[in-house]
Each structure stands twice: as C-alpha cells, then as structure tokens.
Design goal:
By secondary structure, this protein is an alpha+beta fold. The protein has two domains: 70 residues, no CATH class; 207 residues, outer membrane lipoprotein receptor (LolB), chain A. The protein contains eleven helices and twelve strands. Strands 1, 2, 3, 4, 5, 6, 7, 8, 9, 10, 11 and 12 form a twelve-stranded antiparallel beta sheet that branches. A hairpin with a 7-residue loop joins strand 5 and strand 6. The radius of gyration is 22 Å and the shape is globular. The N terminus is likely disordered.
C-alpha cells in the first residue's frame, strides 16, 4: 500500500485535498489532482465505512468535493527553480535538480576537488566576516528558548513570483523545535502549528480567509516534507525561523570553501531593517556550475545580535547579458525573506505550541 493510500485509510488527513486549505498556486492544484486521482475507489469506500462520527464523515465528503473541483481547474506549470529545493543539496552536485526532494542531508558529491584547486581559491575578508557574524548569531540564538517576530516572504513558485506574505510567528527552540504561524494577509487568519514532539511529526493547518465555508472546514495534518506541503513553500516548516536561516547560510558558505567554489563577497554600506542597523553583504556567484540556483545573494545581519534579518536571492537568466542590472534583478528574484518586530524577551507557554489551545480552534 503506497503512502497516499495509507494516509487516506487513516482518516484522509495528512494528504488531504485541502492542502493548506487554500490552494493558491497552480503547482499545488496540479499535485493535488494527481494524488487524489491515483487513489483507488476502494480506498475512499473504506474511508467512508470506517466507524467514525457523522461529523467526521461529513468533513471527508467536503474534502472530496473540494479535491474534485481542484482537479478540474488544474493547470500545467513549470518552475525553473525547484520549489522546496535545499541549495546545499544542489551545491553538492545533485544533477536531478527538479525531482530531488527537499532535504537538509545533502548527498556526497560525485567527484572531490583536488587540494591544489581548493587552495587556489581565495575568499575576501568580507566573506569571512559575514560567516563570523552569522556564527556568533547562531550561538546567540541557540541560547534563546523562544521568540516572536513577523516573517515576510516572497517566493517564486510554479514559475511565477508569488505575492508577499506577512506571517506572525512564535518559535520555540527548547527543549525541541516548535513553531506557530498566523497569516496577516494572503489568506488572512490561516494558522500553521508544528510541534516536533506531537502529532506524529505532522504539521497542523487551519484555513483562514473568512466566510462560513472556511470556518466549517476542520484543521488538517500534513507531512511537512510531503509534496503537498512543499508545493506552497521553498523550504519545509522544520527549517523555518531565524536560527534555521543562519545555519543554512553558514552550511552553504562552508561548503563553498571546502570545495573551492569561487564566490565574490563585498560588504556594502550599512542598512536598516525595521529600525535596526545591519551589516550588508552582497555575494556574486561565478556560474551555474558552482551555484545552480543563485546568481546573487544579499544578506543583512543585525549589528547587535549578528542574526540574519533579511535575505534576498536572485537566480540566473538566459537573457541576462541584454538586460540592465535592475531589469535582471526584477526578472530573477527567487527569494525575499525578512524578519521584523523581533521580540526575544517574550514569555512563551507550552500552550502556544499545543493543538488544544482554545484560541486556535483546531
């Protein structure tokens, strides 16, 4: 029995056709229709015959109706930069970029660089300063139990640049990683909860957007690494937050040095983010061979805590020689992440990361 069938037998929850209860991207709709129609009729029959409550059966029927509607409206899409792909995985030599699942455990490269080739590459003092600041920020964040912030993100998914999303987040680091998210726009009121010690490692999503239908829909559980969840984000929720961003950048920079990949790094004039003074670094990559996803990366690091508060990444274009720098950047923006209203002093209770919190109505 495949994974989709198994989840459908267990309540039609984790691969529910509600996805994130919004289906805003063509990619998610396409994936949804495909996964739903792969499930044989007898699986749906077994689901209906399971001795659950009448309310549960009605929820499943509602999910089925929405899935059927989504399948009808499915459209083909092409994403030149794979959604959910870990840049470190690509950096290490994975040739199946589009089909590779998001994964923080990067595979070994097919060929090791020679010691002479690595030694021949020199990195600027600004390159090393950026890493040093991020490592100090990582140490600071590792000692923080929890914090609140507003996370702003703009991502390219399904070949199209999505609208900016503003999300209130509460993050816990100790004793384990937890995160609660609530959308301020895009689909206002959407909620996402992930507690690594509960719900069998699944994330819980509750639809927002207002309206009677949305209020009637139940919260659903999704595999954070599954294709449905990943069709709406370039990174899984398990990699959300400031600490994860710092760790990801450090890993990539260290791997570039280990493999001798040339990178130009320049420190720009200091900039402000949400009233906080920041060191600004611009990374320029030499070719797709050593950086298949990113052409440039701009990183702003808070001067007080040395944490990354804004990262803007651009990808490659076949027509880049005929465009101005601004035209090229406008065309190739792939990721824009920013953290504002950061509060490290807030006291967070365990109820914040519990599905049973009455404010969530999950």
């Amino acid at each position: 029995m495949n994974r989709t069938q198994d989840r459908m037998r267990n309540g039609f929850r984790s691969n529910s056709p509600l996805l994130l209860l919004g289906l805003p991207t063509a990619t998610s709709v396409k994936t949804l229709g495909a996964e739903f129609h792969r499930a044989p009729a007898k699986v749906y029959s077994n689901m209906i015959q399971t001795p659950t409550s009448v309310a549960a059966r009605r929820s499943n029927m509602l999910a089925l109706m929405i899935a059927s509607s989504a399948a009808v409206t499915a459209v083909a899409s092409f994403d030149p930069v794979p959604a959910g792909e870990d840049p470190l995985r690509i950096l290490l030599g994975n040739t199946e970029i589009e089909s590779a699942p998001a994964n923080t455990d990067a595979p070994a490269a097919s060929a090791e660089p020679t010691a002479a080739a690595v030694a021949a590459v020199e990195y600027s003092p600004d390159f090393h300063l950026c890493i040093q600041q991020l490592e100090e920020g990582r140490e600071f964040l590792s000692g923080i139990d929890s914090y609140k912030a507003i996370f702003h993100k703009t991502e390219r998914l399904g070949g199209d640049l999505g609208e900016r999303q503003d999300i209130e987040i509460t993050v816990g680091h100790s004793p384990n990683f937890n995160i609660y998210m609530r959308w301020r726009n895009f689909e206002k009121g959407r909620q996402l909860l992930f507690n690594s010690q509960e719900n069998d490692g699944l994330m819980i999503v509750k639809k927002g957007g207002g309206g009677l239908l949305n209020r009637m829909l139940p919260a659903i559980s999704l595999d954070p690494m599954g294709s449905l969840a990943m069709s709406e984000s370039r990174y899984p929720v398990t990699q959300a937050g400031i600490l994860a961003m710092a760790e990801r950048i450090i890993r990539i920079r260290n791997e570039e040095q280990t493999r001798g990949y040339p990178v130009d790094c320049t420190r720009l004039d200091d900039q402000e983010v949400d009233g906080r003074n920041c060191s600004a670094f611009l990374f320029k990559f030499h070719s797709k061979k050593t950086s298949p996803v990113y052409r440039t990366s701009r990183i702003l690091i808070d001067s007080e805590y040395h944490i990354p508060v804004k990262v803007v990444n651009h990808t490659w274009s076949a027509n880049q020689d005929s465009l101005t720098e601004k035209e090229l950047d406008d065309l190739t923006l792939v990721e824009d992440y920013e953290f504002t209203a950061i509060d490290f002093k807030v006291k967070v209770t365990t109820e914040v990361f519990s599905r049973n919190n009455p404010r969530y109505r999950m």
